[in-house]
Model the fold of this input.
Amino acid sequence: MEKEKYTIKDAAKLMDVPTSTIRYYDKEGLLPFVERMESGYRIFTEKDIATLRIIDCLKKTGMPIKEIRQFSDWLEQGDASLQQRYEMFLERKRIVEKQMTELQKILDTVNYKCWYYETAIAAGTEKIHHSNEEKVSDNLYLENYQSKI
Amino acid sequence: MEKEKYTIKDAAKLMDVPTSTIRYYDKEGLLPFVERMESGYRIFTEKDIATLRIIDCLKKTGMPIKEIRQFSDWLEQGDASLQQRYEMFLERKRIVEKQMTELQKILDTVNYKCWYYETAIAAGTEKIHHSNEEKVSDNLYLENYQSKI
DNA sequence: ATTGACCTTAAACTCAAGTTTAATGTTATA
DNA sequence: TATAACATTAAACTTGAGTTTAAGGTCAAT
Done:
């Protein structure tokens, strides 16, 4: 059986951030659903932790805090905002897919540079990549290399 | 035949950034190789533009400006720094591969939420995801879904 | 030689996303 | 009941990565 209630310290540990980050998110309106004790201490439920994980996922898609706040507002509205929330995730999907494509291109360039330096080190100098013939080799390399991966 | 020399405006247009960004990079020591006219105007060669593109690639791997400065310093040292530059790109490769893995996990979560909202909208309420039986369905969905993609 | 479109720098400013500090209140336990 | 280890807030501070501003110098075409 899992624990049911969490302190801010527990929540912070689960999310692997300092407690100050959780307080900052709350201050920015990301956590309006978090209840308090009479003393003012925050109480996080399992459900709150699950929502924190979704907020973390949105952050990792590159969504700025202000837009995540919109999502939290929609959460407060319940079923009336299902469509908006759905469209938000559809857009995040498109964005992340674009990021993946971009990241693959970056990886191709990094891999090319690895090969560039391997061959330069073997030759003892970068000059081997300066002549026209070698440039042709580079292109041939790139063409083959990218289809091989 | 391509143009041989570029102004800061040309370079900025080629890199799709404002000229202020190029000046900022120069101020931070990223562009020690860029020559000047007697008047002080920067002159970018084809090679400089190629190096700018590599700097842009490094930036897109998440490398901070201060570490890119190290790369520029190594460039100035010529063949003596081939090994260091090679190791730098090997590390960037590992980092980008990790980013790709992480991004795939994020996409899995986003896809799960898309399904979550599709089904909630069809049912007219999110409550369908609250009962224990439905939670089991979620898990089954996730298991099947991720192997299907 | 004047005009407009360029270029230069230093320094101040912006922005997001936190982090730190200070002053104070609460809870668990020995 | 004292004390340690938590918690609270507001406000100031930090960091990275630029952008903007101000004051001025240069270039190309008329």
Q: What stands out?
A: The interface with chain B takes residues 54, 57, 60-61, 78-79, 82-83, 85-86, 89-90, 92-93, 96-97, 99-100, 102-104, 106-107, 109-111, 113-114, 117-118, 120-121, 124-127 of chain A (CB under 8 Å). The first strand of chain A starts at residue 5 and ends at 6.
